[in-house]
Amino acid sequence: MYSMYAGISALSSMMSLAVAVLMIIGLWKVFVKAGKPGWHAIIPFLNIYDIFDIAWTKKMGIATIILTASGAFVMIIGGIFAGTAAVGFGAGYYYGFGWNDLYDPGKLGVMGGIGVMVMAVGGILALIGAIFTLIAYVKLGRAFGKSGGFLVGLFFLPVIFICILGFGQAQYIGTEYRAATGPYNPYGNQGGYQNQGGYQNPGGYQNQGYQNQGFQNQGYQNQGYQNQGYQNTNYQNDTGFQDVDPATSGDAGTAGVKYCANCGQRLSEVNKFCPSCGTPVDR
Questions:
Q1: What does pTM read for this prediction?
Q2: Closest CA to 157 of 58, 48, 19
C-alpha cells in the first residue's frame, strides 16, 4: 500500500514538473514575440508582471502579484496554526490531555479553528489572483489577434494554448488599450493634430521631432510647385521666413516677398504655413 502511494506521489510530481517546464517554454516564446526578454518566464512573479504588461495593464499585474503573494503567506500562517493544533491533539491523545496546559483540548480547538479560518482567507486571496491571471491569459490571446475558441482554451488549458501561441504564426499586435489610443508616438500629440485631407509630403522632408500645437491640416495639397534650386544660405531670421533684398535679387518688384526658410518656397501675405513643407510662418 505504501509503495502504491509513493508511486502515485512521484508520478504527480513528475507531471507537475513537466507542466511547469512547458509553461516556461511557451511563455519564453511569447515574451520574445512581444519584445520582452525570454528569460523573464523563469522568474516567479516577474513572469506574471510581464504577462499583464503585454496583455492588460501594469497596475493589474502588480495587484495580482500582491493578491497571490499575500494569499500564499496567509495560508502558510494559517497552516502553522492548524498544524500546531493537530500535533497538540496527537500528543494529548498519546500522553493524555490535562497534564499540561499546552495540550488543553479547548485551547487546541481554538488554535485549530483560527488556523483553518486564516487558511480560508489566504485561499480566497490566492483564488482571486488566479482568476485575474486566467483573464490575463485571455487578453494575451487577443493581443496576438486570437478570438473565439482559442480564448476559451487559454482560460481552461493555458499551458497548451500558450505553447501554441508561442510556437505558432501569431504575432503580437498590442492590447485593446493600445489599439484604442493608437500607436506609440515618442514626440506626443500636443494639440490633436489631424490629417483630414490626405496631405502628402512630396519632397521627402522629415519631421525632426517638432510638435503640432493644435493646428489642423485642412487638406492643403502641393499643387505641383517645385523649389527650382533656391537655397537658403545665410539669410535666415527667427521668424521662420526669408527676406529678399530687391537690390541684390535683380527684381525690384520682389521687394517684401517672403520665402520659407526651411524649403525655399515662395510665400504670400496670407500664408500662415508654408504650403510645401508646412513650416509655421510667424508674422
A1: 0.57
A2: 19
